[in-house]
Design brief:
The protein is of the alpha+beta class. Helix content is about 40%, strand content about 25%. The protein is globular.
Length: about 120
């Protein structure tokens, strides 16, 4: 396992790329329940058929909870817009299509954002 290639750093976690896998490593004080809930939510969304990285495992690395998923190679829409400003309208149209596709799905058992925010 190679944790040299950092993809993103957030308040409570660091995301690494390891070949064709992505490792989201949570800080030591991040609760086990929250990590498992995040993995469960992603697994539920996988079942909708949306093209998202699939969860491969949840494990502990150096005392830190880690979600291991597929790495999907590509550029973000934001980066594509920066690199090709003349295609911005095309990318915005694609973004809208993706949003419509996401909102056309139902996902049983997924916590509503409103409920999650009320708990915090």
């Amino acid at each position: 396992m190679n944790l040299d290639r950092i993809i993103a750093v957030r308040t409570d976690k660091t995301v690494y790329r390891d070949g064709d896998r992505c490792l989201k490593v949570f800080n030591e004080d991040f609760s086990k329940a929250d990590v498992l809930n995040e993995a469960l939510n992603q697994a539920r969304v996988e079942e909708t058929g949306l093209n998202i990285p699939k969860i491969l495992e949840v494990t502990v690395i150096d005392g830190k909870w880690t979600i291991v998923s597929e790495f999907i190679k590509g550029k973000t829409l934001a980066r594509l817009m920066e690199e090709n400003p003349e295609k911005k309208d095309e990318y915005l149209s694609l973004f809208v299509d993706l949003q419509l596709q996401m909102h056309s799905k139902t996902c049983k058992g997924l916590t509503k954002l409103k409920d999650k925010m009320n708990r915090k």
